[in-house]
Every structure is written in structure tokens, then in C-alpha cells.
Amino acid sequence: MDSHYRRSSVSSHHFFPHDRHYDEPEAPPPGPSRLKPGAQLTMMRFLQDLPDAEAPPTDVTPRYHTGRLPNSKAGDGKPRLLLMGQRRSGKSSISSVVFHKLPPSETLYLETTTRIKKESMHSFMDFQVWDFPGHLDYFDPAFDVDNIFEEIGALIWVIDAQDEYLEAIMRLNTTILNLQHSYPNINVEVFVHKVDGLSEDYKGDTFRDIIQRVQDELSDHGYENAPVSFYQTSIYDHSIFEAFSKVIQKLIPQLPTLEALLNSLCSTCKIEKAYLFDIMSKIYIATDTSPTDIGSYEICSDYIDVVIDVSEIYGWDRPAENGNAEVVENGNNDAESLITMEKKGNNYLYLREINKYLALICLMGDDSPAEKKAVVDYNVGVFQDALKQVFPRAERDLPVIQTS
Ligand SMILES: Nc1nc2c(ncn2[C@@H]2O[C@H](COP(=O)(O)OP(=O)(O)OP(=O)(O)O)[C@@H](O)[C@H]2O)c(=O)[nH]1
Question: Which domain of life is it from (predicted)?
Fold first, then answer.
């Protein structure tokens, strides 16, 4: 592999699946750690040293993202993604493939969901994913509707495009109309799912038909501009990650800032396309505003897989003390720094670990990038510093030490 790796000083594990954990929101205290003793010691130091370690001195109230929803009644405000839809439409499969890395073919053996399955995701921002059983009537008086919908970030409605979908659309419309009264700002994201098994023509027709039926119903009830978006998805390709990326991006208030930073990086370094990836889920949380095509997303996402695989093999426990650890000039303080540059066909791929959750991947053209690398390194360092101010939490958050 024609790549260049550089690793810097100390602390957390990176590009390791265990850095992330999913649990029930009200889970009991952490169980035994899966990390090796050395790594646990490092974490203990994190726990002791971390508060405000990198907070810039300022009189201005910070306006960066806190992971809280502005109107959250409970105040603990982790945005919630609700996965709803008919039985066997693919809700649990989506959640397992995107957040648990389950190989798509193994979703065949998933059992039907019988009660609401709640999972917390701790990453660059905290959010929860609630997987609903297909048969539930959420507006039954037995359910506490407010409890379900009040802190919602997005309602993802999954429709099986390979199946008869009229009833699914009817339920979706009823749900949207019910919600419009009390929660008019909820983002409704319709995943027209399992499109992998359909011919191009049929796929397009089905997609248009579903959009038309939903929009007609809404406008019949006077909701012309309800916030409803549609995506074609499948767990057997990248489309589900692409769709989830767009859903999550709507929950990130600093998205315009991130896009502006990426635009500026791209124009300074003549980068064709830059993605800021959440490493483990392979959701991209921002990209520059040049047109996106699924091809470039696929290349970058596959590259993350390679890096994770290599890190699984060659990753190492950080030394407990500063010791002889190599220091990289752009200083990735509490993150292992990994920088690679690789030629892929006519393109160069540049990857840099930004912090323990995020990686920047850039696609560059063929115009002598080897000489450009120093300039790119420098500018990405500047981008990284800017990002720290936008997402200070990702820099300072405690490493997660257990998986339930
Ligand atoms: N072809 C295809 N099959 C899929 C896709 N996603 C899920 N499936 C299959 O659909 C079936 C049902 O998936 P589940 O995830 O259990 O569906 P669910 O909506 O959670 O079902 P309930 O728990 O009963 O509500 C499984 O056999 C999956 O393998 C997809 O993108 N394409």
C-alpha cells in the first residue's frame, strides 16, 4: 500500500470499534472494561485531568453544538432518531448495519422487534436511536405520545419498496398529520427501502409514486410545506449510509460553519471533494458544497474500512507516560494522529484523523500532490484547530470504556 502513516503521542484508542458504545439509555453502571489494563490507566488519567483542559478563555457564551435540542422539555436533550414503519420493512436491519456493523446478509436472521428498542450513540454528538415494533399504534391512548416525540430529532419512516406499500403510506400520512398539530417541526425522513432488488425503471416509478401519494395527502390537508424528505435506500450498498448522513446533518447546528471550513480548505489546497466522517458509523457529518456523487462517497467510505482493518492489526496501546512518544508538529493532543495519502487510479486520497471520532478524507486530482502534501498537512492542521472550537466536546470527551 503506497501510503504514509504517522503516529503521534499518546492516549486514546483510535480506529477501534470498541471506542464507541451503544447501550440502553438508562443502562446500569459500566460493566467490566474490554480494554487492556494499560489503556484503562490512560483513561483514568482522562477522567481526572480532562475538565476544561482545552477550553479557550472567552467571555462570550459558547454557541457551538451541545448535542441538546433547543426545545427539549426534559433538558437532557439527546436528539432522538425514531425508526418506524411496517413490520419487516427493515428497521432493525438498518440500525444493525449502520450502528453495529452487522453484515447485511446476517440481517436475514434478525428476530422481529416486540418492544421499543432504545440505544444511545456516543460519538461526536450524542444521540439515541429508537427502533419501534412494526405493529405499534403510537397514537393509542395507552402510549405517552409526548414522551416519544418531544425530544425527537428525526422520524425515519421505512417503507419496503419490494412489498405492497399502500398501507405503509396510509400509516405514514396519518402519523405526519397527527404530528403536525403538536410537533410541526419534526423532520420526517422517508426511506424507500430495499431498492436493491428492483430494476432501475421500477425503482424510479415506485419512488415517484410514493412521494406523490404522500404529498397529495398532505396538501389535501393544507400542509404544502411539511418537512418531509425522501431517500432510496438499501443495506446492501452505500445508500443507507448516505441517507443517514443527510438525516444526521440536519441535526448539526454548526453544519454551515463546517461546510464553510471545508470549502475554504478545498479551495486553498485544490482538493476536489472533502468529507468529514464519523469513523465508526461511516456517516459523513459534513462535506464541502461542491456537488456530491455517491461514487466519491463510496471511495472514501471503503478507504475508512481499510484504515480500520489495518488499525485493528497494527493498533497499539499508548504508552502510559509521555516517554519517548513521537510528537507531530500539528499536534493532535489527545488523539492518535493518523495521516495517509494514497493513489487511487487518477486520484489521490488523503486521510487524516481529526479527533477520536472524526476523520477528514479528501479526494485530490493528479496534479503533483506529493509536493503538495506539506501544504495540505499544514492547512488541515489549521482546519483541525478551527474544528476544535466548533466541536470542543469531541476533543475533550471522555473515552468510552464499556459496551453493554
Ligand atoms: N433486499 C433487502 N432486504 C432487506 C433490506 N433491509 C432489510 N432487509 C430484510 O428485511 C427483513 C426484515 O428486516 P427487519 O430489520 O427484521 O425488519 P423490521 O422492520 O425491524 O421488522 P419488525 O421488527 O417486525 O418490525 C430481513 O430479512 C432483512 O434481511 C434491504 O435493504 N434489502
Answer: Eukaryota
Point out the ligand 1 atom lying closest to the alpha carbon of residue 89.
19
* CA separation for the pair 377, 390 (Å, rounded): 20
Give, for ligand 1, the residue of 84, 88, 157, 236 to mutate: max count of ligand atoms closer than 8 Å to Cβ.
88
404 neighbors 23 (Cβ within 8 angstroms): yes
Task: Decide: pTM greater than 0.90.
Answer: no
pLDDT per residue as tens digits for the range 51-100:
333 333 444 333 333 344 444 444 445 788 889 999 999 999 999 999 88
Cα separation, 190 vs 156, in Å, equals 6
- For residue 31, CA distances in Å to 28, 48, 75, 400, 403 come to 8, 20, 27, 12, 8
Q: Where in 29-140 does DSSP place strands (E)?
A: 80-85, 117-122, 126-131
**Angle between helical axes of 166-182 and 200-220 (0-180°, round to 10):** 40
Taking the alpha carbons of 238, 171, 183, 95 in that order, is the dihedral positive or negative?
Answer: negative
Q: Which domains does the chain have, with CATH numbers?
A: 17-49+254-396 (3.30.450.190), 80-249 (3.40.50.300)
CA nearest to 210, candidates 262, 250, 171, 254 = 171
Task: Give which of 404, 403, 400 is closest to 19, Cα–Cα.
Answer: 400
User: Which stretches in the chain have pLDDT values below 70?
Assistant: 1-77, 138-139, 141, 311, 314-346, 368-369, 392-404
Atom number of ligand 1 nearest to Cα 95:
15
Kindly report each contact of residues 203-210 with a partner whose C-beta sits within 8 Å and lies 24 or more positions away, as own/partner.
203/161, 203/232, 206/161, 206/165, 207/161, 207/232, 210/159, 210/161, 210/165, 210/169
Distance from residue 281's CA to the centre of ligand 1 (Å): 19
Alpha helices, DSSP H, located in 22-165: 37-49, 91-100, 145-149
| Residues facing residue 120 across a β-bridge | 23, 128
